[in-house]
Amino acid sequence: MIVITTKNELVQKISEIKNDNKTIGFVPTMGFLHDGHVKLLEEARKANDFVVLSIFVNPLQFGPNEDFDSYPRNARKDEEIARLAGVDFIFTPSVLEMYPKKPTYTVTVGSRVDVLCGRSREGHFDGVATVLTKLFNLIEPNRAYFGMKDAQQVAVVDGLITEFNYPIDLVTVPTVREEDGLAKSSRNVYLSEIERSQAIVIYKSLVMAKQKINQGMRDKEEIKSFISSLISNESDGIIDYVEILSYPELDEIEIMNGKIILAIAVKFTKARLIDNITFEVE
């Protein structure tokens, strides 16, 4: 496994791979790797000749009151996890390497961002799209791997790849969960012991709401109220949103049919947790 910190070295290595007609699977992350990331790497390892992992805490994704400086980092542990997962290259640039000066050009995302997390994180997905554009151009992957835990990000990346005509297959991987159903996340470390025990209600509410829909419930507000009541009754978390939208378009729906997403964000003392499920409604 090779750790690369500069764009020039990365481009050279990628050129060698391309000249040998080898395929590249790419997993972009902000580090502090957990089992969810490992699953992405394992899927990339199965289907590609080379696996490239990027670890870059992207400042463009963070708002003025968000946790860029305190975002968890552990480079040594990340490298060991990557090595065990069969990664070939880790690209770990500095902020100065990625943005040597204030960006003159950025990507503005015009749809799929005014709902869910995007509603309260203005500019966040512009930052995601901008750094992915840079990374896609540098790495030229055949396949890019994203977890469905952040389904809105997946929807945005789907649009980015489609509209910019990137010859990249977007591979989505189901959310990796703890045994009790809590979605694995780098931010789970911020939960107190009590909050950790309460947080399982998030996924529980999604599963129960899906069951009600499958049993015939179609009133969107009734379903949202059911989810909200369950979370409020079984946790001290403050609900940021409960949404039911089309997927991947993330449009408001009047009639519940086709592929939809049930999505939740809940704020605890030091952590904001998100979760979702997507499924077809007939």
TrEMBL record:
Residues at which ATP binds: 30-37, 147-150, 176, 184-187
Predominant location: cytoplasm
Pfam families: Pantoate_ligase
Binding site for beta-alanine: Q61
Entry's Gene Ontology molecular function annotations: ligase activity
SUPFAM superfamilies recorded: Nucleotidylyl transferase
Reaction(s) catalysed (UniProt annotation): (R)-pantoate + beta-alanine + ATP = (R)-pantothenate + AMP + diphosphate + H(+)
Listed InterPro entries: Cyt_trans-like, Pantoate_ligase, Pantoate_ligase_C, Rossmann-like_a/b/a_fold
Enzyme class: ligase
Cell location: Cytoplasm
Record keywords, A-Z: ATP-binding, Cytoplasm, Ligase, Nucleotide-binding, Pantothenate biosynthesis
Enzyme Commission identifier(s): 6.3.2.1
UniProt-annotated catalytic positions: H37
Biological pathway: Cofactor biosynthesis; (R)-pantothenate biosynthesis; (R)-pantothenate from (R)-pantoate and beta-alanine: step 1/1
Binding site for (R)-pantoate: Q61, Q153
NCBIfam families, alphabetized: cyt_tran_rel, panC
Quaternary structure (record): Homodimer.
Family membership noted in the UniProt record: Belongs to the pantothenate synthetase family.
Note: The reaction proceeds by a bi uni uni bi ping pong mechanism.
Known function: Catalyzes the condensation of pantoate with beta-alanine in an ATP-dependent reaction via a pantoyl-adenylate intermediate.
Name of protein: Pantothenate synthetase
Source organism (scientific name): Metabacillus rhizolycopersici
Classification lineage: Bacteria, Bacillati, Bacillota, Bacilli, Bacillales
